[in-house]
Write a structure and sequence with these properties.
The complex is a heterodimer of chains A (104) and B (841). Chain A has 104 residues and is mostly beta strands. Chain B has seven domains: 171 residues, FAD/NAD(P)-binding domain (3-Layer(bba) Sandwich), CATH 3.50.50.60; 114 residues, 3-Layer(bba) Sandwich (FAD/NAD(P)-binding domain), CATH 3.50.50; 82 residues, Enolase-like, domain 1 (2-Layer Sandwich); 72 residues, BFD-like [2Fe-2S]-binding domain (Arc Repressor Mutant, subunit A), CATH 1.10.10.1100; 51 residues, no CATH class; 69 residues, Sulfite Reductase Hemoprotein,Domain 2 (Sulfite Reductase Hemoprotein, domain 2, Alpha-Beta Complex); 153 residues, 2-Layer Sandwich (Sulfite Reductase Hemoprotein, domain 1). Chain B has 27 helices and 41 strands. In chain B, the strands form twelve sheets. Chain B has a five-stranded parallel sheet with strand order 5-2-1-9-21. In chain B, strands 11-18-12-13-14 form a five-stranded parallel sheet. A five-stranded antiparallel sheet of chain B has the order 24-25-28-27-26. Chain B is globular and about 85 Å long. The chains are: A mainly beta (104), B alpha/beta (841). Chain B: This is assimilatory sulfite reductase (ferredoxin).
């Protein structure tokens, strides 16, 4: 991956409530953005690599997000899956002046 | 009969885009066990990035597991179970599958494949994986004038032939199977299981003569005959009798055997027509070198159609080894990859007998050691052949416990015990697990997929604790499945050392180290009303665990009723949006329809909603309700508003529905008003959370039209106002008749008793433990004593507990319509492109 990451404003920070995930598009890439219980943000590809499930509908904790369809888990840290599914893409995400910024 | 296995939904087509695709063109002829596996191996090496793949398949189906045809024929497996790769699989991976298109010849100079549909497909690399076809021995009358087989005569090689046999088994009675090898024996046993009278005709003097010696063959014969299958040995069929359909066969000695189905399983021959027509060198099969290359540049052959160093293999493991080597070479993953031959070891079950064979079956030199243990009465025959202190052959019939060790010795030449008898029997009377423990780490357990004991143990160490998860992670046991027993033993052995596995099995959820009763006490003691507070107080290190949240949320709702503090991250998506998520990310909506009774007005509203929101499927459910499937998340609130009906809780771990029969109002046989009682029960217990779903039914007489005997709670009218209450029944993945808890005389008693039972289950059932497991675990006698005699003095508490939850009920649809639970609650999470497309009906 030699291409430099591109930053996109995908939405407003308040669109992602505490403990939930919401789907956005970052420059054509569907991403799921989560706000963990500690208030921090995480972003992964919106599509579960296993069977295409909507990851934004998944439950999360400090370590993983769990896809709602077949309960495959993916680590925030590197996208790898403790349940043996192929890894999911992980994107840097931050809040800037109330805007949600995702780098893809 | 003509269904396409693993087919695409009608109306879907794949687009072949050409244009500026610069990838090299890889064409595979043959979509069977070898060809399809080769494509998988190429894709696994990211070969799709620089190879554009086209696969020709003679059969119209996707790729299926040919090894599993016998279980399908025997009715032990479904067709759907044996699909390895569906048409969608190919489409999703940008592989152009030409299913049902036969390749006629290859122009190896112009490098173009010509197919029967008139197409000409250029290639840069061509792989022949055409496999074999059934050999039909010359017999008078076996073919009709046009050269096709006489109706009722069938080979045993494809799913279509299997379907033909299954159809014949339904309408005909007598079958003759030609060929007493592995395939013939499997066909005979399967057809017999389908209810046919089966005779087996074999040309050689003993069964499975290619793999077994005479004595071992005799042991197999005995077992086959014990199944009720007549066996004719040394018998040559010379003529097939019948004009419109087979009526029998005539043997060389003049005997005639009547039949209306003739299965020919007398061996296979490699499919070499395409190679011959294309000028590629063929002997018994297509000649290949150690790179699987034929004598023509850029043309390769793998699987049963390939002849390597003089050997043509008829087993799946070598074919898959071919596929791996060629994929390494063509993708550049390992430019040095070479195939040097396979030592074949087979392990299978023939006619109910375990058989394992490897190498030679009898000694060939005077100096060879030959050890035989023969117990024909027990159906056991074991032998090994040892040359120069190395195992060169083993035959195990009826007892394959030593197969793992022997396979290892055979494959790797590991040292043999000086007392040779230890090769065949465990002289120490230690337990059976010693075998697994002593198995060397690098010994191959799954021959089909080449998985070693070490890899299985590694998967367990990485956290796989169930057999399916280990199988998913390693592919062990996912070929023919014959090694599943050994894989299970190894998994159990490997997981045993992990004390946490044992310990956590008793926990209510994996993230909190406590069994349920302790957990409930701790929650009450610390007054924990939200899932996050439970983690903070009771989890090790206060660490949250996503997979434990749903179970904890359910428990807290049970304990606290309306005082539970909900948190969005603790709630599964179904409970967040009060609908059941489907495979394509849409939702199913089931309005409440108490007792399965509806009205014209309700039906009209449901119909209007279905039309307005273009609902792809409207389905009457097993629970006597109507399901609207394929609703978009963002439409859910509008759908509820238009329906104006309460939620039917078809998505939750909760009381779902109460089925009823028409009872005494209309039924000529009804003894009591089951319909009204069902409606009353559903009204009282609607939406009550529980460790797993609860399904109920009430019937007006023991004819059981609403299946009350197989429900979590079932109520049966027996006349004169009396009702029987059954608990712990099931008719899902498990089938269990409920246990009779009590017979009572009033509907009020029915409601009280059900309430107590549900509350007992809610307070004591493990997460996701259905009542059909809970009732046997507690024991019916104890449950009766607690609920009927108040033996533990908790009946008042149970009554209060369930009443608290009943009082806390609000319809979730009405509640969230009035005020969304969180901003964007119903916002779509769908990327809208790559999800599996569910067909519109």
């Amino acid at each position: 991956m030699t291409a430099t990451a591109q930053a996109y404003v995908v939405g407003r920070a308040e669109e992602v409530p505490l403990g939930e995930g919401r789907a956005f598009t970052a420059g054509g890439t569907p991403v799921a953005v989560f706000r963990l219980r500690d208030g921090s943000l995480r972003a992964v590809a919106a599509v579960c690599p296993h069977a295409g499930g909507p990851l934004a509908d998944g439950q999360s904790d400090a370590t993983v997000v769990v896809c709602p369809l077949h309960l495959n888990a993916y680590r925030w840290e590197d996208g790898s899956s403790p349940t043996g599914a192929p890894p999911v893409a992980v994107y840097p995400v931050r809040e800037e002046d109330g805007a949600l910024v995702v780098e893809t | 009969m003509t269904a396409v296995l693993g087919g695409r939904t009608a109306g879907q087509t794949s687009l072949a885009l050409d244009g500026d695709d610069t990838r090299a063109r890889l064409v595979v002829v043959g979509n069977g066990m070898a060809g399809a596996r080769f494509v998988e191996e190429v894709l696994e090496r990211d070969g799709g990035e620089h190879l554009r793949i086209t696969v020709f398949g003679d059969e119209p189906h996707g790729n299926y597991n040919r090894i599993m045809l016998s279980p399908v024929l025997a009715g032990e497996a479904d067709e759907a179970d044996i699909v390895l790769n569906s048409h969608d699989w190919y489409a999703d991976r940008d592989v152009d599958l030409r299913a049902g298109v036969r390749v006629e010849r290859v122009d190896t100079v112009a490098k173009v494949v010509h197919a029967a549909d008139g197409s000409a497909t250029p290639y840069d690399h061509l792989v022949l994986a055409t496999g074999s076809h059934s050999f039909i021995p010359p017999m008078t009358g076996v073919r009709t004038a046009d050269g096709s087989l006489l109706p009722g005569v069938v080979g045993f090689r494809t799913i279509d032939e299997t379907r033909q046999m299954l159809a014949a088994a339904r309408t005909h009675r007598r079958a003759v199977v030609l060929g007493g090898g592995l395939l013939g024996l499997e066909a005979a046993r399967a057809l017999q299981a389908q209810g046919m009278v089966v005779e087996l005709v074999h040309a050689a003097e003993w069964l499975m003569n290619a793999q077994l010696d005479a004595e071992a063959g005799a042991v197999v014969r005995r077992s086959v005959e014990e199944l009720g299958i007549a066996v004719h040995l040394g018998a040559l069929a010379t003529e097939v009798v019948g004009t419109d359909r087979v009526a029998g066969i005539v043997l060389k000695d003049g005997r005639r055997l009547d039949c209306d189905l003739l299965v020919v399983a007398a061996g296979v021959r490699p499919h070499t027509d395409v190679a011959v027509r294309s000028g590629i060198e063929v002997e018994r099969a297509v000649l290949v070198d150690d790179r699987m290359a034929t004598d023509v540049p850029d043309v390769y052959a793998i699987g049963e159609c390939a002849q390597h160093r003089g050997t043509v293999y008829g087993l799946v493991a070598p074919a898959w080894e071919h596929a791996t080597v060629l994929a390494d070479l063509l993708t550049g993953a390992d430019p040095e990859a070479a195939y040097t031959g396979s030592r074949t070891a087979t392990k299978l079950k023939v006619a109910g007998v375990d058989v394992a064979v490897m190498g030679v079956s009898t000694p060939e030199r005077d100096s060879d050691e030959f050890l035989v243990i023969s117990e024909p009465r027990r159906g056991v025959h074991l032998s090994v052949v040892v040359r120069d202190d190395r195992l060169i052959g083993a035959t195990l019939v009826g007892d394959t416990r030593k197969v793992a060790f022997l396979t290892q010795a055979f494959d790797r030449g590991t040292p043999l015990p000086a007392e040779r008898i230890k090769l065949l029997v465990d002289l120490s009377d230690g337990d059976a697990e010693v075998g697994v423990a002593e198995l060397p780490g690098d010994s191959q357990v799954c021959n089909c997929n080449g998985v070693s004991k070490d890899r299985i143990c590694g998967a367990v160490a990485d956290g796989c604790t169930s057999l399916p998860s280990v199988m998913d992670a390693t592919r062990a046991g996912k070929g023919c499945g014959s090694c599943k027993g050994l894989v299970r033993q190894i998994v159990e052995w490997a997981a045993d050392g992990e004390l946490t596995v044992e310990e956590s099995a008793s926990w209510y959820v994996p993230g909190i180290p406590m069994p349920k009763p302790e957990l409930v006490t701790a929650i009450r003691e610390h007054d924990l009303r939200s899932v996050s507070s439970v983690f903070a107080t009771l989890a090790r290190g206060g660490v949250e665990d996503a997979k434990s949240k749903m179970g904890l949320a359910s428990l807290l709702k049970t304990i606290w009723g309306s005082d539970y503090v909900p948190e969005p991250d603790a709630t599964f998506v179904n409970d967040r949006v009060h609908a059941n998520i489907q495979r394509d990310g849409t939702f199913s909506v089931v309005p409440q329809m108490k007792g399965g009774v509806t009205t014209p007005a309700q039906l009209r509203r449901i119909a209007d909603v279905a039309e307005k929101y273009e609902v792809p499927m409207v389905k009457v459910t097993g629970g006597q309700r109507i399901d609207l499937l394929g609703i978009r998340k963002e439409d859910l609130p509008k759908v509820w508003a238009d329906l104006g009906m309460p939620s039917g809780y078809a998505y939750g771990k909760s009381m779902r529905t109460v089925k009823t029969c028409v009872g005494s109002d209309f039924c000529r046989f009804g003894l009591d008003d089951s319909t009204q009682l069902g409606i009353d029960i559903e009204t009282r217990f609607q939406g009550v959370e529980s460790p797993a779903k609860i399904k109920m039914a009430v019937v007006g007489c023991p004819r059981n039209c609403a299946e009350a005997y197989v429900k979590d709670v079932g109520v049966v009218a027996t006349g004169k106002g009396r009702w029987e209450v059954y608990v712990g029944g099931a008719a899902g993945a498990s089938v269990r008749k409920g246990d009779l808890l009590a017979t009572v005389s009033t509907t009020e008693e029915v409601l009280t008793l059900i309430g107590r039972f549900i509350q007992l289950y809610r307070e004591n059932g493990n997460w996701l433990e259905r009542t059909y497991d809970f009732v046997p675990r507690w024991g019916l006698d104890r449950i009766k004593a607690v609920l009927l005699e108040d033996s533990e003095g908790i009946c008042d508490a149970l009554d209060e507990g369930i009443q608290r939850s009943i009082d806390a009920y609000t319809d979730p649809w009405a509640r969230d319509l009035a005020e969304p639970a969180s901003p964007g609650q119903f916002r779509t999470s769908l990327p809208l492109t790559v999800l599996p497309q569910v067909p519109v009906r």
